[in-house]
């Protein structure tokens, strides 16, 4: 139950089931929930759950005044002389041993990721080797990881391997870079003009699996108190063995989703002797999560399957006899790491895999159909389940880089970006259809069609993206041919370029000069494996050709390494880029579009947009929220910083021969897959 109080606070009354058992047979109660929450809210917690950012009453007081030792050491710097909270020996050891060791392990994690996901002869040629040679030599593996992640230039004209610092290695004669060398390149790449490295941004940007700080010795992850802080969170109140109340300082529509935590057993992860709710002790010492982290490789929970071990790319699991829905029908469940999309369907046909999730494309659909005698996606060999992807594909434009003069918010700057948006939008249909066929649809607003907040064609004011000219008139008519639409879009784009201040030679319809701050040449980045393998690549090619006819050059930078694409737009070094968003359960727009959003790569800064985003967070009225988001999306489109492109399908393929498909979840959605009812699946 949710109660909005007169003072503006909101109270959530939570009652849990009393029949939940962990896989060791012990029962879960509200103390396990409270223990779990305090782990997530600890000042030194560095996992992916973001409950610590919510407006729970008393949370700020609980987290203030304590930080992890490594955060404090990094903030203080190597030249610090104040040893109030740590010793000089600790500081020296951190900079000379602790951080470099973690850095080398961090670099190795990137190398491992590259080997798992990219190692083939084509990519191996970047360092003058073959995949087989790299697999056999550790030094070549490091070199491969460096070049794939953008920290090396590859083989230079002298035949030497060269990193981004200019260091060279004669690998032909056994001289290889080490993970320490890799680390040194990262440290230098994230250093400012004073030589101070931003380790936090480095970790967030470069992490392939775990962040940098997860590789530090536990001595550095312990919390250090720098001032007095509360020893409990006042907004978390135990009301019974299976109930509690959580009070927030304000209404936040997204908070309810933070309550969907995975409960873990305090008896296993924590220390029951340290749990005394009345005296503000919650199963571990505040600021010390080391004991909990030690259990992360041997997890325990209350789910349908029990973790047994991980070995050689396989996670081995066994049915949990205490699962509250009943013991799963299939005794053993193994998850196998598959690095190649091509191996997922073939794994079904060869019998090494029972269920897989290949990326959908027209080519993949043909492969599946070809393995069924009936020529369909579902047959006697393979059964296919399609559902909408939770996100959508888009083209982004940096307002900071694609603008007129110095004002990214000016009408001229918006017109410039909308000129490109108009051209990109008209080529969407052909490009998406050729790649996905009938299993993808065009998206006209910056939101996934799977969201309840997505505008529908039947809604008042619904509009196809970038379908009006600079005067607000419709560009297209129903009787236009495809070629007519392309010509109309080009003419409309010229109108936007003129409005942006570009000089247009009217007789030929060719742009001859750009206004101050703008350009005749822009670059769009795409991760199409360096070979054009992407649903939006044809779109870009067609747009580039069309723009060339009016004097605008659109260069396409097709990255073979997707990390280079991410680095380009995340650091605002890309004029435009192609990517896809993975939508959350709630349509909250703060992170992506608020001027202070952490992933606002568009560099959009609009006070009205910020107000709409915050207003939508402060109401639970879904109809009202949808109207606020519609207005917000119209502002985003008016800025011309995003061109929504496609909503694609995802798939699961199941072996019809080995799995009883009648026991597999039907009507899958982005939020409910076969895993949601895995306990019901039976083998033939």
What does this structure look like?
The strands form 8 sheets. Strands 18-24-17-23-21-22 form a 6-stranded mixed beta sheet, sandwiched between helices. By secondary structure, it is α+β, with helices and mostly antiparallel strands. It contains 22 helices and 25 strands. The radius of gyration is 28 Å and the shape is globular. The protein is 33% helix and 16% strand. The model has no long low-confidence stretch (mean pLDDT 93).
Spell out the blueprint of helices and strands.
Layout: E1 2-4, E2 10-15, H1 30-41, H2 59-63, E3 66-68, H3 69-76, H4 88-118, H5 121-124, H6 131-136, H7 138-148, E4 152-155, E5 161-163, E6 168-169, H8 179-189, H9 199-206, E7 223-225, E8 236-240, E9 243-248, H10 255-258, H11 266-269, E10 275-276, E11 281-282, H12 290-293, E12 305-311, E13 314-319, E14 332-336, H13 342-350, E15 355-356, H14 362-371, E16 382-388, E17 392-397, H15 411-426, H16 428-436, E18 441-442, H17 482-500, E19 503-505, E20 510-513, E21 521-526, H18 537-548, E22 553-558, H19 562-570, E23 576-581, H20 590-593, H21 607-617, H22 622-639, E24 642-647, E25 649-655
Parallel strand pairs: 21-22, 21-23
Antiparallel strand pairs: 1-2, 2-9, 3-7, 4-5, 5-6, 8-9, 10-11, 12-13, 13-14, 15-25, 16-25, 17-23, 17-24, 18-24, 19-20
